[in-house]
């Protein structure tokens, strides 16, 4: 069995974000392309994060003999993106409400709203980073995301008044991700094939290496701190083992001298 913990993801870094822009805005063409100025960050999201759901359901066609399944098909296939925004601002209000007119005077924004709801089309970029290692990233570039309100906005003194949304991806979209599989079997099972720990190692690899080699990280959490602790441990181990070898040699020499004297 070959397993690699570096391929397991926990998202929720400080840099995770959903960016929205008007349809037709130039889209990024790589995982790290700078976004067009028209893209606006939705801002804080609630703790449930970003939920990607496949909406298709399997339909089974059964035959007469034994009522056995002859064919299956996917009914109503699609992909949705659900998120809950926490910030009250023009962007989130514009996505939730039908705003017919809006003006700001002396710090007060007045908006005439329709009582109904509508679907809003936006270009969308979703950036997600591994919470332990922001060099590992996933990016979805969606040309058309149809966004609709997806629940109640509750005013209470116990929680933030949130903006829940559901977006339907229309057509194809581009997905980019850091290829950690290029590390091969690196991880607890593959350190022998790797060079000494360096900047190219992920945080997960460094922690696994430290655990396997019984290296005390002394509370280090940042990648630079962990790398320093791991790198410093190798010379320290060598220094500790050297006197043991010298003591063994001294003991052998003493025994030889005693034998000669006898």
Structure overview:
- The structure is a single chain.
- The protein is α+β, with helices and mostly antiparallel strands and 262 residues long.
- It contains three helices and twelve strands.
- The radius of gyration is 29 Å and the shape is globular.
- Mean pLDDT is 86; it is low at 185-190 and 235-249.
What's the arrangement of secondary structure elements?
Blueprint: E1 17-21, E2 40-41, E3 51-54, E4 57-62, E5 69-75, E6 79-85, H1 90-96, E7 98-105, E8 108-114, E9 120-130, E10 133-149, E11 163-169, E12 173-177, H2 203-212, H3 223-261
Antiparallel strand pairs: 1-2, 1-9, 3-6, 4-5, 6-11, 7-8, 9-10, 10-11, 10-12
Name the descriptors.
262 residues, alpha+beta, 8-stranded antiparallel sheet, two-stranded antiparallel sheet, 3 helices, 12 strands, 33% strand
Major sheet characteristics: 8 strands, antiparallel
Question: How would you sum up the global shape?
Answer: globular
Number of strands: 12
Mean pLDDT across residues: 86
Q: Helicity level, as a percent range? A: 10-25%
Q: Give unreliable regions as ranges.
A: 185-190, 235-249
TL;DR of this structure?
The chain has 262 residues and is an alpha+beta fold. The chain has three helices and twelve strands, in the order ββββββαββββββαα.
């Amino acid at each position: 069995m070959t397993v690699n913990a570096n391929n397991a993801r926990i998202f929720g870094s400080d840099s995770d974000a959903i960016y929205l822009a008007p349809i037709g805005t130039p889209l990024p063409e790589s995982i790290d392309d700078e976004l067009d100025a028209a893209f606006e960050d939705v801002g804080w999201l609630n703790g449930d994060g970003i939920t990607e759901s496949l909406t298709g359901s399997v339909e089974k066609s059964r035959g007469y003999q034994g009522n056995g399944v002859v064919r299956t098909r996917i009914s109503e296939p699609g992909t949705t993106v659900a998120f809950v925004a926490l910030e009250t601002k023009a962007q989130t209000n514009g996505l939730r409400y039908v705003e017919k007119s809006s003006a700001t005077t002396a710090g007060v924004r007045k908006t005439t709203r329709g009582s109904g709801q509508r679907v809003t089309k936006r270009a969308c970029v979703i950036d997600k980073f591994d919470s332990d290692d922001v060099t590992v990233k996933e990016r979805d570039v969606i040309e058309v995301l149809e966004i609709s309100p997806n629940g109640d906005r509750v005013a209470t003194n116990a929680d933030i008044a949130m903006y829940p949304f559901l977006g339907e991806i229309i057509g194809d979209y581009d997905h980019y991700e850091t290829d950690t599989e290029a590390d091969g079997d690196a991880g607890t099972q593959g350190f022998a094939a790797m060079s000494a720990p360096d900047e190219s190692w992920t945080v997960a690899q460094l922690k696994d290496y430290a655990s396997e080699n019984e290296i005390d990280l002394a509370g280090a959490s940042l990648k630079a701190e962990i790398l320093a602790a791991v790198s410093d441990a190798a010379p320290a181990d060598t220094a500790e083992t050297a006197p043991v070898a010298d003591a063994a040699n001294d003991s052998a020499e003493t025994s030889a001298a005693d034998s000669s004297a006898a």
